[in-house]
Write a structure and sequence with these properties.
Layout (H helix, E strand, L loop, with lengths): L5 E3 L7 H5 L6 E3 L2 E5 L12 H4 L3 E5 L5 H9 L3 E7 L6 H4 L27 H17 L4 E5 L21 H11 L8 H11 L1 H26 L4 E6 L10 H4 L5 H4 L5 E4 L13 H14 L10 E2 L2 E3 L12 H8 L6 E5 L1 H4 L3 H15 L1
Parallel strand pairs: 3-4, 3-11, 4-5, 5-6, 6-7, 7-8, 8-9, 10-11
Antiparallel strand pairs: 1-2
Bound molecules: zinc ion.
């Protein structure tokens, strides 16, 4: 079920066409008012998601039960799963050969403890695909959002750490055969700097293609098991210019290529966390860039949607209640057609922020 609402900023009784002509008063068609990381009202007698103004919840794939799905659906809301693709660190305990290898030819330590996995490890990929298939087969969910779908890196901070990886034997062989780049029989520690220096663009594109191919396979499984369910991704919100193009060069996220397989992009413009605590407008600038990049305006009928996840919880830097409406307003401007926030688990204790959030969501739902 799609719940659509038109919200005319500052104008009562307007029509879409009239408002579209007014600069500064964009029409908002916000179909999704989401909660990430928990379910408000769950296990509370008489509580309803609509009391909160929400019409969708996103919870980790490990937290799914049939009862939860039924409760959310009984509210007339949608339920989406968050699925960890490349950050399943526990896998390494029994499969140390899946650890990413750095440009020095050694296993690359996890930057700030963010452990990634080698993207060409066949058994790891098969394990993730099987887990994804079980999830979508077993639960009547409305969609799945890929998470951590990027290389071994710590980017969710103001000063990211993104080591060059993975130079394991398998990745080097795959790069060579896939791109037709002949590599001499030399150790990884010698090859890696030469690849980065002499074949940097091919290397970056090849890594992107490997990650995109994972998305292709997730799409295939979702369409087989639960046709009609949405495939989304939580992703790094940088433009091609931010951090000198590192979203592509280091993180291996090719948004345009992935667009072939995705229904929804959910950039993560955590303004306070990423050094923009006093500038919530940064959120809408990043979302606006994404729309231009993908050719999306947030108009009805567009095949791909942009639903950012914005930061309302404290993570290193506090988010004041007085900023909540401004953050959500920035996150719901076109091309956005939906919004959610990070994250219910830690936000629910802050009743002042929850009150502001609820007020804003209810305003969108009228
Ligand atoms: Zn590798």
């Amino acid at each position: 079920m799609v719940m659509a609402a038109f919200f005319c900023s500052g104008v009562i009784g307007c029509t879409a066409n009239e408002i579209a002509e007014l600069p500064g008063d964009p029409v908002r068609r916000i179909e999704m008012r989401g909660v990430y990381g928990g379910i408000p009202g769950e296990n509370t007698a008489g509580a309803a998601l609509s009391d909160f103004g929400a019409n969708a919840v996103f919870i980790g794939s490990g937290g799914f039960t049939k009862e939860r799905v039924e409760w959310v659906k009984s509210q007339g809301a949608r339920i989406f799963a968050e699925f960890n693709t490349m950050h399943n660190a526990r896998y390494l305990e029994e499969h140390p050969d899946a650890a990413p290898v750095g440009a020095d030819g050694e296993v690359c330590p996890p930057p700030h403890d963010w452990q990634g996995i080698c993207p060409t490890h066949p058994e790891y990929r098969a394990e993730r695909m099987n887990s994804f298939r079980e999830l979508v087969r077993n639960f009547d969910l409305d969609g799945v959002w890929l998470d951590y779908h990027h290389s071994h890196a710590s980017w969710e901070r103001e000063d990211p750490a993104m080591p060059d990886t993975c130079f394991c034997e398998r990745c080097l062989e795959r790069f060579s055969s896939d791109t037709g780049t002949e590599l001499p029989d030399l150790p990884a520690a010698t090859l890696a700097p030469a690849i980065l220096e002499d074949h940097g663009e091919e290397w970056a594109q090849w890594r992107c293609d490997v990650f995109t191919d994972w998305v292709r396979e997730f799409r295939e499984i979702l369409d087989e098991e639960r046709p009609g369910a949405l495939l989304g991704t939580f992703h790094n919100p940088w433009s091609d210019q931010d951090f000198d193009g590192d979203r592509i060069r280091k993180l291996a996220i090719d948004l345009k290529a992935q667009a072939e397989y995705l229904d929804v992009f959910s950039p993560m413009p955590y303004h306070a966390r990423f050094g923009h605590a006093d500038d919530p407008e940064w959120i809408s600038r990043q979302v606006s860039w994404l729309g231009s990049y993908l050719g999306l305006e947030g108009k009805p009928g567009e095949a791909i949607k942009i639903w950012p996840i914005v930061q309302l919880s404290d993570w290193g830097t506090e988010v004041p209640a007085s900023q909540v409406a401004e953050i959500l307003e920035a996150g719901t401007r076109p091309p956005s057609t939906g919004v959610m926030f990070f994250a219910w688990g830690s936000l629910k204790e802050h009743t002042d922020r929850v009150g502001e959030l609820s007020k804003f969501y209810k305003g969108l739902s009228q």
